[in-house]
């Protein structure tokens, strides 16, 4: 989502006016959220895969989920495929796949694919894509003083080498749900551990969003802005910092003004 950065799930909203394309989730759309060049009065379209492809009872979204489930579970393992689909029974999954993807392919012919090309190791000139040097977001030249100041920050990914709660994954790395002999208590304990891990991931994501939205990576920019403020405004901004995490940067600036 362009507004809150959450992973989009259909249906979602696509702005018809903003270029490059701006996609937002239905929650941000419902509250009229705005960011950057996007305004809530822009024309829009709803992106959804709810239309049928082969059969009226199967939407395009369900076709994609069926392909993903078969890729994960394998052909013939219809119980697991149905469990991953959640909306179709074993018989429905088996019958639909055999009818539309096997029998239909035999009667209508398989699509013509391009002949495979020999793999070739790319040269340095073809795979090395240098990023454009900029101050905001900070992308300093390699081996510069600025890059040393931002050690641990990966400008091409806009991410950090060391995350908040960096070892959260260590607590669940040995958990497995494949053992059918586990007691119900042990299974509940495993599920609780995973839920705690997901909570820690949300806390990590929340802090990264604060850093990104307020541009806190670019310390140099913030230091230059602070130097222009008089003492009274600097003290006011410091006292209002606890409220920054509760609102967008634009709303926080309006509150201070």
Automatic annotation (TrEMBL):
Annotated source species: Nematostella vectensis
Residue stretches making up the Myb-like domain: 55-101
Name of the protein in question: Transcriptional adapter 2-alpha
GO BP terms, alphabetized: chromatin remodeling; regulation of transcription by RNA polymerase II
Keyword terms: Metal-binding, Zinc, Zinc-finger
Pfam families: Myb_DNA-binding, TADA2A-like_3rd, ZZ_ADA2
SUPFAM superfamilies per the UniProt record, alphabetical: Homeodomain-like
InterPro entries hit by this protein: Homeodomain-like_sf, Myb_dom, SANT/Myb, SANT_dom, TADA2A_B-like_dom, Znf_ZZ
Residue span, SANT domain: 53-105
